[in-house]
Amino acid sequence: MSSSWWRNAVIYQVYVRSFADSNGDGTGDINGIRSKLPYLAELGVTGLWVNPWYASPLRDGGYDVADYRDIEPSYGTLDDAKAMIAEAHDLGLRVLVDLVPNHTSSDHAWFQEAINAPVGDPSRSRYLIRDGRGPDGNEPPTNWKSIFGGSAWDQLDDGQWYLHLFDTTQPDLDWTNTEVQEEFKDIFRFWLEIGADGFRVDVAHGLAKDMDFPDEEISGELLQNAKTPNHPYWDRDDVHQYIRQWRAVLEEYDDRMMVAEAWVAPDRQPLYIRPDEYHQSFAFDFLESNWDKEELRGNIEAAIDSAGSVDNVPTWTLSNHDVVRHATRYGLPLGTNWRTWLLDGPHDILDADLGNRRARAAIMFMLALPGCVYLYQGEELGLPEVYDLPLEILDDPVWVMSGNTAKGRDGCRVPIPWSTSGPSFGFGEREGWLPQPDFFGALSAEAQAGVGGSMLEHYRSALALRSTHIPDSGDIDWADGPTSDTLTFSRPGGLTCWINFGSDDVELPEDAEILLASEPSFNRVLGTDGAVWFR
Ligand code: NOJ
Q: What is the pLDDT of residues 261-286, one digit of tens each?
């Protein structure tokens, strides 16, 4: 196997809790994933990224890790995980695990030790625990905000405060502490020994914090925006020393990689994928692009140039477990702020057919671009966001931490429908941990498999063609399209991709040999929002 397999891999993201439930407890699990590995191999992906599966109180979907070397009991056992990795390898699939170094769960033994120790005890120095301000120390040490809402500080019973950039149950680690650094090198090794091919690293632009940063220098929108230059806790230059430590560990093994979740400005992206740092970093500006030709092209070119500046290729994704599913985003009016999710759902403004049509085109241009692609479970079924989940069952801490002003991310985490009927459409033997809408049965894998023109068959065809027709190279040729509304590019090997953003139909050249079209009834004329591959 080539040592840079990741450069053009197609990685399928598995949100364990919502993928497949093997034991009928309503929660997805590792044996559920094992049962679906043949499906993933048949789909045509080359690997999977498994969201955190470690022992966890699941206050933030497992991004609150209580033990990095054990599996969450409701997901299975370490032996199940080892078996899953081995079976994936037998099918030629790579496996990435999700590492969470910025914070632990408050249930982690280190945090329990810290809060039960007296003020000043060395166990407290693994976290960012500080005295408060004000006459009796009852004001938080800084003005920093949690990403989920409210202050980033919570007070302990003895009066000191601990930092949590996310949920109150996710205390931030102090990365200047060498014990923290050594522990994570060891955690990396633990999973590498078990056979993980790589890591998706959570909050990769966090970790390094300037604890003396004056409040006066940043507040409001600037503080909320991770792309603000010279930010007290995002994208600080100090973070790179830790990344290099991990890369050195990976280099002790053959063929392993790591991908950064770093929501940073485009000009900062290349810093994360220098040769001695991450192998990849998601091009989130592409994910966040509106359905707009110039905006998309601009963000695609910026990502290619930015990765190219460090001799690398970009890493694309359209959806993940933190964002509104793209089949829904693309059906919303241009510029809708889907990030502050609409509490009552987009009932009147959503055009679901439009979103679906654009999603069929989007996968084609993403798969045709140079670099690696990540898919999010269920997008191959065309699943939309479930925006109507009842408020009383919402599980995402965002709902509470935002003071009920943002619904949170549960709508993209609804259990996957595998079959047309059953208590949870084949997800398990009973209802899943989040309810599925009735229309999920018609979108199930069973309903779509073998059905010409279905989203699932569209993905299968596109992935098969990508593996044979799209080369492992960073080159792309942009060309003038047949109309100014057509985005047009070619790849070495001769594949050309057109996407029609205009309202007029576009005719294909007479000699074009069509490989795939996004419109099921395509007949050499590309309609609005359609995409085609030809040579
Ligand atoms: C990013 C993860 O993708 C998200 O789901 C999580 O809530 C935060 N990091 C905190 O770990």
A: 999 988 899 999 999 999 999 999 99
